[in-house]
Amino acid sequence: MQCPLPRIAVLWSALLFGLALSAGTTPALAQAERCPKLVAGNPFLQRLAPRTVPAAYVAPRQVGLTYIGHSTFLIETAGGVTVATDYNDYVRPAMVPRVATMNRAHSTHYSLNPDPGIEHVLKGWREDRDPVHYDLDIDDLWVGNLQTNIRDWRGDTIRNGNSIFVFRAADLCIAHLGHLHHTLTHDDIGALGRLDVVLAPVDGSYTLDIDGMIEVLKSLEAPVVIPMHYFNESTLENFLTRFAGRDYAIERRESPELVLSRETLPRKPTVIVLPPGG
Fold first, then answer.
1. Does the record bear Nucleotidyltransferase in its keywords (predicted)?
2. What is the domain extent for residue 9?
3. Cys bridge to 140: 46, 49, 52, 229, which one at CB 3.0-4.6 A?
């Protein structure tokens, strides 16, 4: 849905004000509004995006997604932009991505020595706990973030310790929830806007508990949910069992690679389980 241009400034100001009142977020998160409302379906902006070398298996109007493991996915656009989520020193894609996002929680979610060939290293936090704000156009990909809080090992709150990164390409909005530790507010949901794919941590312990994660996923209403951050099959099954019967279909794929497009999104909301090992 396209926002009428005269209303953009009004919506932006209102959203900033609302987010400033939210306990779990900051005004810097408002750029996520752009994913569905300010870019989607805009052919002028699409013509402006230069093309680089495309991924071999990603056709125009498609996005490639490969589950590498833990919380790391490789996202590939038709224009050749590659992203590694929660880039770290333990689980990495074989290729050097153009973009790497990272989160603070544990060393399996960030790297102190990212490959120097990465063009954009996007940390989802600041050491001084002030908000961090991303609003990047990289060829045919847009990247934004919405910050949330995390707990430290004593249970104390670290403000702005996690970012939900939002990626938009081929008119698809993909959200990586990172190391989410709490449910989302009404303002958070509004800032994220329309999401098509949610990459969700489902361990139920180190991140958000299962009931809380189910609440988040229901509120986001994305057609596709892809589990991540589970430590064994029983952890995954616990999430799937609890989520079954909640109007979501469950699909298990044999390949860690998935090609997504707006035209092929499932009509019934679906949890797609990808095996790690991209």
1. no
2. 5-273
3. 49
Place of tokens 């939210």: 22
Q: How far is CA 46 from the centre of its chain?
A: 21
**DSSP bridge partners of 206:** none
Q: Is residue 278 part of a domain?
A: no
Asked if 165 and 135 touch (Cβ cutoff 8 Å), the reply is: no
- Which residues on neighbouring strands pair with residue 176, listed in sequence order? 165, 199
Q: In this structure, are residues 252 and 237 in contact, taking their beta carbons and an 8 Å threshold?
A: no
CA angle 136, 229, 163 (to 5 degrees): 30
pLDDT band, residue 56 (cuts 50/70/90): low
Number of structural domains the chain divides into: 1
Q: Is the dihedral of CA 128, 133, 136, 142 positive or negative?
A: positive
Residue 12 belongs to a domain with what CATH number? Answer: 3.60.15.10
Rounded CA separation 141/65 (Å): 14
Question: C-alpha dihedral over 103, 108, 113, 115, to 10 degrees?
Answer: -90
For residue 237, pLDDT beyond 50: yes
Residue with tokens 């993909």: 174
Q: Can you read off the two tokens belonging to residue 219? A: 């509120």
Whether the pTM exceeds 0.85: the reply is no
Long-range contacts of 74-77 (CB under 8 A, 24+ apart): 74/278, 75/141, 75/167, 75/169, 75/174, 77/139, 77/140, 77/141, 77/169, 77/170
Hey, what are 99's tokens?
A: 């973009």
d(CA 195, CA 74): 18
